[in-house]
Write a sequence for this structure.
C-alpha cells in the first residue's frame, strides 16, 4: 500500500477530520447537559442529578440495567447449550440454526413488535407485566450478534474432542457445558454479552410500542419538560456502552496476542 | 428443543401474525383492502421517502466509510490507531435510536450548541424552520451511524487485499491506477456493494431515531406504521399497519438476500 | 432424526399460532361485591353501592386506581390527581401521560385481565364513539345537571371538559394575532407550531379544521385547512416541532395552535402569552370520560367519576382553563369559581362548530392522503 509522505499527510488530515466529526455530537451533549438554565452563566450538574433524583427515571434506569443482565443470561442459557449440542449431535442442523439466528436481522424489530402484542398478552397473563418480560423479546433481537461471537469462539476450540473426553471421564452434560466448554469460550461469550447490553440499553422500538418504561422511553418522556436531563441521560448511557465495548476490544486484543504466542 | 420453542413463540408467531393480519380486516374476515392501501398516495410517498433516506445514507456512508476504512487499513495491522478506530466504530454503530436523536438535538436543535455558536459568532441561523425534524434532518443523523457500520463491515475485505498481489502486479509492470482498475476494484466491488446493501437495510428498518425526531407527518414507512397503530383520528388502521410491516419485511428480505449472495462471492477470495 | 425434529418444530409452531389467535382468559376474580349484592363492575349508580359512603369504603378497599394519558398540565390533571389522593385513601397510578386516546384503548386491550389495565378513560371524540362497547355505564350523582347533548343517556360516556381551538402566542416575540390569516405574515417565520400530527391527535385535527373554516371551508371540507398549512410551510413559517411547556418557555415555539386551556397551561410561566380564539372560526371540542367495563378497580373507578363531576372536580378543571361540562349549571347555582369562569377567553363571532363523527371520518381520510405530502 502507498506510504509516501504526501499520502501520510493527507491521511492524517482526513483522519483528524473524521475524528472531529464523530466527536462533535458527543462534546455537544456534554456541553448542553451541563449548561446552567436561563440567563445564568457557568456549568451545573443539575441535569445529571435529576437523573438519579427523579423517581421515574431512576426506576427506568434500574429496569433497563436489570433487563440487560436478564437478557444476557437468557441468551447464553439458550445459545450455548444449543450450539454445543448441534455441533456434537446434529452437525447438519448447523446451517438451519445459523439461518434461524440470523433471521432477526432480516425481520425488522418494528415488524416483530407489530405482531407480538398477542403473544405478550399471554406472557402478561402467565408471568405478570413488569418491564422485565421484555427480556424474551430482547433475547430474540440479540441472537444474531450472540450467534456470531459464540460461533467463532466455538470454532476455535475442538468442542467434540473436549466434550467426549470429559464425558468419558464421567462428567454429566451440565459439567461439560459449564466447566469444560464455557471457560474456553469466555471471550466469545463476553463479547456477545457486551453487545447484548449495548443493544438492550438503547432499545426503544419494543419498549415504546409495548408500553414499558425502560430508559430510552423514560428519556423521551422527560425530554418534553427537561431537555438537559434527557441529553445527560443519553450521554450517560453512551459512556457506559463505550466503556463496555472498549473493554471488549481489549479482551479480543489479548486473545490475538495469546493465539499469536501459540503460532510456530 | 427449548431454543426452537423460544424462537417459535417470539419470532415466528409475530411474523405469522403480521402476514395473516395484513390480509385481514378489523373483524377477522379476509380482505385485500390493506394490500391495496399500500398503493395509496400516503403509503407510496412514505415508501419513496424511506428508500431515498436509506439509499442516500447508504451511499454517503459507503463512500465516506470506505475512505475511512481504507485509511485505517493502510496503517497496518499492529497500529494502535487502527484498533482504537475499529473499537470506536463498534461503539458508534450501536449509537442509534434515542441517544443519537438527543445528541443531534443538543448540537443542531433550537438551543443547540452549534446553533448558538454560529448565531452568536457568524450570525447564521442553521436551525431555520426546524429542518432537523424532517427528512433532511434524518439523512444527516443517519449518516452518523452508517459510516462506522461501513467501516466495521468493509474493513475485513480491505484487509484481506494482500500486499503480495500488489507486489506481483508491480512486478508485472502495472502502475498504481492499473492495479486498482484491474485487480483492486474488481475484487473489492462485491464487498463494497454488499456492505452498502447492509447499510441500506439498516437505515430502512430503523425506527427509534425517527420516532424521537419526527413528530409531524409520517414521512417514512416506519412512522406510518406507528401512526396506523396509535392514531386517534384515523381508527381501525391496525391491519394497515400489518400490511405496511409486511412491505418492510419484503424490502429488507430482498436486500439482505442480495447481500448474502455478494458475501458468498467475496468470501471466496478472502480466505 | 432431522425430519422428526422438523416435524416437532412445526407442531410446536402450529400450536403456538393457534394459542396466539386467542386471548388469555380475563381475570375477574378480584371483583368487589357491594352490600346490596351487586358486583362493583356492574354498578350503574352510587345507589348500587348503598350510597356514597359505601362507595367510598368499597373504593378505599381496592386501594388503587389506574389512570392513563393524563399529563399533569393538561386541564390541571396534576392537581386533580393529588386532590383525589388526598381526599381518599387511594393511590393513583398514572401511566403514559403523553399517550394519545388510541393508546388508552390499546393499553386496555393489551393489559386486559391484569392489574395494570386502565380503570377509566379520557378520550377524544372519534376514539370514544368507536369503542363504546368497552365502557361500563355509570351515572354520577350530578348526572342530571349535565345537558343531554353532552352525555350518553345511560351514562356510558359523559363529556367532561372542553375548550375552543385557539392561537396562543408570545406577544413579546410576535405581533398580535387577530385572525388565522395573520400567521402567513413575514413576522412569523419559523414560529408556528401545531400540537401534534392531525392524522394522529385530536387537538391537531381540530387545529386544521379551524384553519379550514377560516379559509372558507367547513366541517365537511377540510381541504382549505390543509392548503393553509401548505402555504404556511412554503412561507417558512411552519415549525414541525411538538410544542410543550419547555419549548414555549425557551421561545422555540412562539406561536402554538392548540386547545385554549392547553395553551394557557403550558404558558403559565410566560407572562406575555396571549390566547385568542379566532372569531371567524370557532371550533369546540369536548373530551369523553368513561369507565372501563373490565376495570381492575371498579369501585375506585366509579368514585373517580363522582369526584370529577362534583363541584370540586369541575372547579379544578376550570383552574386548568378548561370549560367543565357542568359549567353553566354551576354558574347559575353559584358553585362555580366566579373569577376563573369570567376569565375564560371571550368567544363570539361566527357560528360554533363541533364536527360530527361522520365529518371527522371524512376529514380524517382526506388528511391521511394529503397531510404528509403537504407538510414534508
Amino acid at each position: 500500500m502507498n506510504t509516501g509522505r504526501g499520502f501520510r499527510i493527507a491521511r492524517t488530515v482526513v483522519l483528524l477530520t473524521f475524528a472531529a466529526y464523530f466527536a462533535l455530537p458527543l462534546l455537544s451533549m456534554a456541553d448542553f447537559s451541563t449548561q446552567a438554565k436561563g440567563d445564568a452563566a457557568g456549568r451545573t450538574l443539575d441535569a445529571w442529578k435529576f437523573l438519579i433524583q427523579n423517581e421515574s427515571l431512576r426506576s427506568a434506569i434500574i429496569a433497563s440495567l436489570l433487563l440487560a443482565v436478564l437478557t444476557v443470561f437468557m441468551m447464553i442459557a439458550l445459545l450455548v447449550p444449543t450450539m454445543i449440542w448441534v455441533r456434537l449431535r446434529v452437525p447438519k442442523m448447523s446451517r438451519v440454526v445459523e439461518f434461524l439466528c440470523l433471521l432477526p436481522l432480516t425481520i425488522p424489530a418494528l415488524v416483530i413488535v407489530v405482531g407480538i402484542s398477542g403473544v405478550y398478552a399471554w406472557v402478561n397473563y402467565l408471568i405478570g407485566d413488569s418491564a422485565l418480560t421484555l427480556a424474551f423479546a430482547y433475547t430474540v433481537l440479540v441472537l444474531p450478534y450472540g450467534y456470531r461471537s459464540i460461533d467463532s469462539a466455538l470454532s476455535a476450540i475442538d468442542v467434540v474432542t473436549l466434550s467426549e473426553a470429559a464425558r468419558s471421564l464421567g462428567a454429566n452434560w451440565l459439567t461439560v457445558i459449564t466447566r469444560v466448554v464455557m471457560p474456553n469460550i469466555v471471550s466469545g461469550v463476553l463479547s456477545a454479552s457486551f453487545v447484548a447490553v449495548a443493544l438492550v440499553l438503547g432499545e426503544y422500538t419494543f419498549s415504546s410500542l409495548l408500553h414499558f418504561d425502560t430508559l430510552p422511553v423514560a428519556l423521551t418522556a422527560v425530554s418534553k419538560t427537561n431537555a438537559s436531563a434527557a441529553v445527560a441521560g443519553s450521554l450517560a448511557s453512551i459512556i457506559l456502552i463505550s466503556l463496555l465495548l472498549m473493554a471488549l476490544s481489549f479482551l479480543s486484543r489479548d486473545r490475538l496476542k495469546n493465539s499469536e504466542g501459540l503460532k510456530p | 428443543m427449548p431454543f426452537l420453542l423460544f424462537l417459535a413463540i417470539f419470532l415466528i408467531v409475530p411474523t405469522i401474525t403480521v402476514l395473516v393480519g395484513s390480509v385481514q380486516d378489523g373483524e377477522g374476515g379476509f380482505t385485500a383492502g390493506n394490500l391495496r392501501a399500500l398503493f395509496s398516495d400516503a403509503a407510496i410517498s412514505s415508501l419513496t421517502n424511506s428508500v431515498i433516506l436509506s439509499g442516500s445514507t447508504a451511499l454517503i456512508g459507503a463512500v465516506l466509510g470506505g475512505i475511512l476504512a481504507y485509511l485505517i487499513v493502510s496503517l497496518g495491522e499492529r497500529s494502535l490507531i487502527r484498533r482504537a478506530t475499529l473499537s470506536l466504530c463498534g461503539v458508534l454503530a450501536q449509537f442509534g435510536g434515542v441517544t443519537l436523536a438527543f445528541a443531534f438535538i443538543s448540537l443542531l436543535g433550537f438551543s443547540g450548541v452549534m446553533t448558538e455558536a454560529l448565531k452568536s459568532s457568524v450570525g447564521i441561523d442553521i436551525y431555520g424552520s426546524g429542518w432537523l425534524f424532517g427528512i433532511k434532518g434524518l439523512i444527516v443523523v443517519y449518516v452518523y451511524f452508517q459510516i462506522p457500520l461501513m467501516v466495521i463491515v468493509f474493513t475485513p475485505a480491505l484487509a484481506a487485499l494482500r500486499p503480495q498481489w500488489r507486489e506481483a502486479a508491480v512486478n508485472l509492470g502495472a502502475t498504481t491506477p492499473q492495479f486498482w482498475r484491474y485487480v483492486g476494484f474488481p475484487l473489492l466491488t462485491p464487498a463494497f456493494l454488499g456492505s452498502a446493501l447492509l447499510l441500506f437495510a439498516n437505515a430502512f428498518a430503523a425506527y427509534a431515531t425517527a420516532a424521537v425526531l419526527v413528530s409531524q407527518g409520517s414521512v417514512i414507512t416506519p412512522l406510518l406504521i406507528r401512526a396506523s397503530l396509535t392514531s386517534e383520528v384515523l381508527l381501525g388502521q391496525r391491519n394497515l399497519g400489518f400490511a405496511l410491516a409486511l412491505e418492510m419485511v419484503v424490502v429488507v428480505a430482498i436486500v439482505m438476500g442480495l447481500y448474502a449472495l455478494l458475501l458468498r462471492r467475496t468470501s471466496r477470495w478472502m480466505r | 432424526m432431522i425430519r422428526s425434529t422438523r416435524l416437532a418444530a412445526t407442531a410446536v409452531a402450529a400450536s403456538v399460532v393457534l394459542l396466539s389467535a386467542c386471548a388469555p382468559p380475563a381475570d375477574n376474580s378480584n371483583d368487589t361485591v357491594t352490600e346490596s349484592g351487586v358486583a362493583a363492575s356492574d354498578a350503574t349508580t352510587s345507589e348500587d353501592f348503598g350510597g356514597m359512603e359505601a362507595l367510598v369504603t368499597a373504593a378505599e378497599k381496592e386501594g388503587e386506581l389506574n389512570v392513563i394519558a393524563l399529563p399533569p398540565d393538561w386541564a390541571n390533571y396534576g392537581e386533580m390527581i393529588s386532590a383525589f389522593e388526598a381526599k381518599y385513601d387511594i393511590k393513583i397510578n398514572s401511566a403514559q401521560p403523553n399517550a394519545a386516546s388510541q393508546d388508552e384503548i390499546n393499553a386496555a386491550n393489551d393489559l386486559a385481565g391484569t392489574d395494570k389495565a386502565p380503570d377509566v378513560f379520557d378520550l377524544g371524540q372519534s376514539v370514544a364513539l368507536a369503542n363504546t362497547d368497552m365502557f361500563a355505564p355509570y351515572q354520577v350523582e350530578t348526572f342530571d345537571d349535565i345537558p343531554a347533548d353532552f352525555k350518553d343517556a345511560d351514562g356510558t360516556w359523559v363529556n367532561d371538559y372542553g375548550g375552543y381551538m385557539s392561537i396562543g402566542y408570545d406577544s413579546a416575540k410576535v405581533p398580535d394575532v387577530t385572525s388565522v390569516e395573520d400567521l402567513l405574515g413575514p413576522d412569523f417565520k419559523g414560529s408556528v407550531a401545531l400540537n401534534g400530527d392531525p392524522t394522529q391527535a385530536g387537538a391537531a385535527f381540530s387545529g386544521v379544521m379551524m384553519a379550514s373554516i377560516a379559509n372558507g371551508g367547513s366541517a365537511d371540507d377540510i381541504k382549505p385547512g390543509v392548503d393553509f398549512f401548505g402555504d404556511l410551510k412554503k412561507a417558512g413559517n411552519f415549525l414541525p416541532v411538538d410544542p410543550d411547556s419547555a419549548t414555549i418557555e425557551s421561545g422555540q415555539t412562539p406561536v402554538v395552535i392548540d386547545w385554549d386551556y392547553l395553551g394557557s397551561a403550558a404558558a403559565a410561566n410566560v407572562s406575555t402569552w396571549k390566547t385568542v380564539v379566532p372569531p371567524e372560526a370557532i371550533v369546540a371540542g369536548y373530551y369523553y370520560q368513561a369507565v372501563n367495563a373490565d376495570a381492575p378497580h371498579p369501585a375506585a373507578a366509579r368514585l373517580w367519576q363522582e369526584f370529577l363531576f362534583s363541584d370540586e372536580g369541575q372547579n379544578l378543571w376550570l383552574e386548568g382553563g378548561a370549560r367543565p361540562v357542568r359549567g353553566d349549571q354551576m354558574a347559575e347555582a353559584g358553585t362555580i369559581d366566579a373569577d376563573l369562569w369570567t376569565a375564560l377567553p371571550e368567544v363570539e363571532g361566527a357560528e360554533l362548530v363541533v364536527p360530527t363523527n361522520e365529518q371527522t371520518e371524512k376529514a380524517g381520510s382526506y388528511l391521511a392522503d394529503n397531510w404528509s405530502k403537504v407538510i414534508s
